[in-house]
Amino acid sequence: MSLPNPPRRAALRAFWLTSVCLFGLPAGVVISAVAGVSPAGFLAVCFGILCLGVAWPHYVMPIYSVWLRLSRQVLRLSNLALTAVCFYLVFAVVGVAGSRLPLKRAAADESLWEAADRPARGALDEADATAGSTRGWVFRYLNRAVESGNLWTICLLPFLVMLRFNDQEGNSYPSQIYTLF
Amino acid sequence: MQIFRMTLGIIATAAGLILLAPVIILSLPFWLVAFGTRIGSRLLEPRCIAWNEVFAFDDQFGWKPKPNLKVHHLADDVFQLTTDSEGWRGRISLAQSRVVVLGDSFAFGYGIDDDDFFANCTPELQVKAIGSNGYNMVQELMWLEHLAPHLKDKLVVWFIYLGNDLHENLVPDMHGYRMPFLRSRDGNWEITNRHLRPEKWPFTFTLGGGRTDYYEQLARLCVPGARSSRAYRACEYLIQRAKQCCERADARLIVISIPERHQLNSAGVAFLQSLSGNSSLFDPDLPDSQLGAICRSLAIQFVALKGRLNASHYKTHDWHWNRKGHRAVAGILKEITAEHAGRARVRDTEQVPVLGSGLRIAISPGRMRADR
Predict the structure, then answer these.
(1) What is the pLDDT of residues B329-357, one digit of tens each?
(2) Where are the domains of chain B?
(3) Count of alpha carbons within 13 Å of B20, Cβ hemisphere only?
(4) CA of A180: which chain B residue's CA is closest?
(5) Min Cα separation A38/chain B (Å)
(6) According to a count of CB atoms within 10 Å of the terminal CB, is the N or C end of chain A lower?
(7) CATH fold of B48-363, please?
(8) Nearest C-alpha neighbor of B144 from the set B103, B191, B187
C-alpha cells in the first residue's frame, strides 16, 4: 500500500486530512496539556490548517512529495527486514522439520505436472497472488494452506500482509486516454 | 510432523515479529497515512465517466461530444465537464457568442474544470469553443462550414495544435477511430469521410508505434522535405477554405498555433531533434514559420503561441494546458478581440464602395482587405 504517485487533488486532500488527524490532533492534545493552551483554540488552529489544505490542495504537494520519498525509503528497508526474517528465521526453523513442498529436482522421467482436479501443492498461483481485495486473498491463502496440507504456511501470513502494505506499486495515469477500443 | 512443523512455525513467527517490532513501529505511520489517503481519495473523488461516455460516434464528423453532460472525467486529474445542448463546452450558446474558437482537445478544454476553462475565464468576451478531443483540422473545417450560417460578424479563432493536427489531417484514423481526412486526387485536395463507421479502423499509419511515435510525427514536420511539405500544403488548402467560408459568412478568421510542450524548452527541442531523422535540417520553428507564411499569403492574422506560452502553462503529466495556461490563453484572446474590435471600427469608418463592381475595399492598419 503506497501513496498514489503522481497524486490527484483528491489524494492530496485525503493525505492532508489523514496527516492532520493522525499527527496534528494528537500533537495538539499533548501541546495543550503541556503548555496549558486551551484545547478549543488548538482545535480551531488544526481545523484552519485542515481547511487550507483541502481548499488549496496544490500547496500540500511539497509536503506530500517529501513524505512520499521518505515513505519509499522506509518501506524499502522494511521490506528487506521482513524478507530477511522470513527467509533466515521462519523458513530455516520450519525447514528443520522438513517440508511437504516439492523442493527436490525432478528425475528425468518424472513429470512435475499436477492433476487438474487436485489443488496444486505449494505456493499461491498467479491469480491468487494478484486477485481481489486483501480479505479475498487472505481467505484463499488460508484455504490453500489447509488444502495443500502445509498448515505451517499460515505462519507466514503476518509477513505477507506486511509485505502487501509495503507494496510500492504507485498509481499511474491511464496510459491512453482515448480508450473506446 | 504436521503439528511439530506448525509449532515451530508459530514460534519462529513470534520471534520474527518481536525482531521486527522496531520496523513495524517505524512503518506504521506510513501505512496509516497511505491507507487513509487511499480510502479518503476514493471517498472524496467524484465518479468519473469513461471517454466513450463523453463522446459519441458521428457519421459525418467521426465523433462529437455528447450534449447536456454535467459529469466528471479523468485526464491527469478528475475534472468537471459540462456541455451544452449541442455538445460544446462553454457557458454561452453559439448564438450569444462574439468569438468562436475552433479546435481539438485544447479548444474542448480537456483536463480542466469548467470554471478554469479559457472560454469561461473572461465572460465579457463571449467565447464559444467548438472543439473535441482528437479532432484534426479537417473535422474543424467541416464544423466551421456546418456552422457558417451562425457566424455572421463573429471572430473565428482557429486553434492549430502543432503536436498532431498537421499530421492527422492526412490520415484516416486516430488511434483506430475513423476520422475525415484530406487526400489528394489528380493534384487536388479533397475531404474524405466515406470510411466513417463506428468500427475500429483496421490499419495503422504509424512510424513504428510506441510512445515516441507521436513526437516523431511532430519532429518530422520540423524538417523540410516531401513529407512536411505535403502536410503544409494540406494545411494551406484547409486554411484557404476556412477563409473563404468565413468571408461568405461575414466572419473574420484568425489562426493561432499551439506549440507542443517539448517545443518550449531546450531539452524538449533536443528530444524532438533526436527523433527528426535529419538533425542537421531540423528547425523547431518550421511549423510556425510555414503556418505564418500561409496566413500571410492569405491575408489572415496569425498568432504563434510559442512566443506567449512556456512550459509552466502545460500540465506535467498530460499534453494539455493547466489552469495557468487557460488563463494565459484567455488573456491572449482578450488582446486579439480588442485588436479585432479596433480594426473593425477602422474598417467601418474607412469602407468605401467601388463603383459598379460591388467590391468594397477595407483599409485596416498595415493591411488591405477586399470584401465582396
Answers:
(1) 999 999 999 887 777 666 655 543 433 33
(2) 1-45, 48-363
(3) 27
(4) B52
(5) 27
(6) C
(7) Rossmann fold (3.40.50)
(8) B103
